[in-house]
Amino acid sequence: xxxxxxxxxxxxxxxxxxxxxxxxxxxxxxxxxxxxxxxxxxxxxxxxxxxxxxxxxxxxxxxxxxxxxxxxxxxxxxxxxxxxxxxxxxxxxxxxxxxxxxxxxxxxxxxxxxxxxxxxxxxxxxxxxxxxxxxxxxxxxxxxxxxxxxxxxxxxxxxxxxxxxxxxxxxxxxxxxxxxxxxxxxxxxxxxxxxxxxxxxxxx
Amino acid sequence: xxxxxxxxxxxxxxxxxxxxxxxxxxxxxxxxxxxxxxxxxxxxxxxxxxxxxxxxxxxxxxxxxxxxxxxxxxxxxxxxxxxxxxxxxxxxxxxxxxxxxxxxxxxxxxxxxxxxxxxxxxxxxxxxxxxxxxxxxxxxxxxxxxxxxxxxxxxxxxxxxxxxxxxxxxxxxxxxxxxxxxxxxxxxxxxxxxxxxxxxxxxx
DNA sequence: ACCTGAACACCGTTCAAGT
DNA sequence: ACCTGAACACCGTTCAAGT
Lengths: 204, 204
What we know:
The structure is a homodimer.
Chain A: H1 9-23, H2 30-37, H3 51-66, H4 77-93, H5 98-107, H6 113-125, H7 130-159, H8 169-189, H9 199-202
Helix pairs in contact in A: 1-3, 3-4, 3-5, 4-6, 4-7, 5-7, 6-7, 7-8
Chain A binds a DNA duplex through loops.
């Protein structure tokens, strides 16, 4: 002891990612992080105004690490969508509780803006009006977050001795193809006639 | 004082629902619940082995209250699916943080078994093989949970003075119609040929 | 069957003060 | 710029004991 233990924002994020991967989101507390870094809990508030903002930074870094930096910019819209969603899945699967973290962060409106914007742009270029592109992009993200969160839950269950929890690429691919096929249908319908009576779909 | 304050399981669940609706999921703690009921925190563990199981019971009750008890059993599969999903949405929208609660509970494999089973059964009857019906049902639930969670987040933001957060039935209907159209496509494709090369959808 | 009392091992956040 | 020290107001859970 005697040496001061100064850190930068990026040191904190880096260590948070390793705690996340090793012990899970539930064990990722400000106090634990501080203790690990040899610092008082209050010191972390020099770098982040709240735990939520720290988690947002961790989620951003997790997604940034999962990004392949060169990526096809041309091709059919459905292929481009599949690439973005597959990359997002891989990024979240790379860290324990990655999907839970990203979903939590984007629930309070902070993370995953990048993939959301990319999907919206691709779908706009594919011919959807802005509102439709936005809705379709959100629907894709809901699928990806939900599906990968399920995969990681089962993964952890199987790590604790249960059976049959390996992530199935084909399940993800088929689920994604459902949403993509639905969007294709929306593109074809749009401009022509939107269903005049949506109430049947509401069930009342 | 002097009167003993005995409660039954259902009293605890009932009060938990009212705390949820009034103060939100973050304020729904075992200690707060106990204090409200005039009881020691440890007393709750007579009724529930853990907070997670208490939350599961609360989610079950929330969904049970949202159920219309007589419901069409015949009709087109897409209409039946829309009814189940719309009812699920209404049930969650009826309580503050309802979607967050149900999603959290079903993430650790406890709640919303009812809607999941119903959807699976409807989709099986529509001609999907068991694995496909299961996957399609989960995809529908991911959409509903994600979409309604978004709606409730925006609802709370707008309650705190922000603009433009009213739940839009039409957004839900359009999003749901995307997933339903995708499932329709899957039903048509199945038996014939499944896409031989799914790797394009994985993006690598 | 339902509850008390007390303890254990934690949380996030604030704030004046230090270097 | 980055951190300490101390406090405030909380958590979930366990367990022996009581009626």
